[in-house]
Amino acid sequence: MNTPGLPPEPRGEQVPIGEKKPTLLVLHINDSTDDQVLFQAACRKARVPVQWHVAETAARGISYLKSLIDLGSTQPVQWPDLVLLDIRMPGIDGVEVLRRIRKLDGTLSVIMVTANEDVTLARETLELGAFDYVAKPFDYEYLDRTVSAGLVQSSATSAADEAVKADPWRRLAHAIFRATRAMNATARASTGTRLEAAALAAAREAAARRAAVATEHLEEIELLLSIAADLGDLPGTDRTLVETALEAARRALPAAP
After folding, report:
1. Which residues make beta-bridge pairs with 136?
2. Is the pTM of this model over 0.70?
3. Which domains does the chain have, with CATH numbers?
4. Strand order in 24-29's β-sheet?
């Protein structure tokens, strides 16, 4: 039972206060029980230990975060590492919730959940700082990959990553350069340097608003990733981070007229 005035207990394993977190905390702001089951399954596949707090409405999600801030002034609390946020909910919509989250925390990873008819709106949330979005009906492979990348990035986030997370092109270059630095010398010489060059070229073309050319470089990155994976040059976790960043960059391209 919850103590009056304190935030609701997260679901999952208890986290010892004052100790290093053994698990990540996921805040799911969504009124769909089916979605909750799917995302919890995706977290299990990521092999990252997590616990959950579910807020069935946007107002409850914001209230939960604010209560953590209030409680944190007197004792240690666990702040969420990842938010799964539905765009369409009764009352406050997910876009407004994202704006409010950004006022509370500029770096918290937020994955938006949307229906296909809201994809344009979901793309706009990337400009507001969303980590990524997944659309219904779900592509389960992409859903698993996005959640995994969000959890991995959350577990390794530092203050220096703020600008990287806010810009999909810097995020892509950052993910690729991190991955290639972990390659052995042979792998980096064969596929790593080409991945780095393609990432920088894509970012330059996107900045110059040459979307068609930027798309060609993104396709080159996709091919190189596949080759690197086939050759065993790229660990699965690194590939997941790069693929998710690649998709975010592709979605950030201006739509064809």
Report:
1. 115
2. no
3. 24-159 (3.40.50.2300), 167-252 (1.20.1440.60)
4. 50-55, 24-29, 82-86, 109-115, 132-136
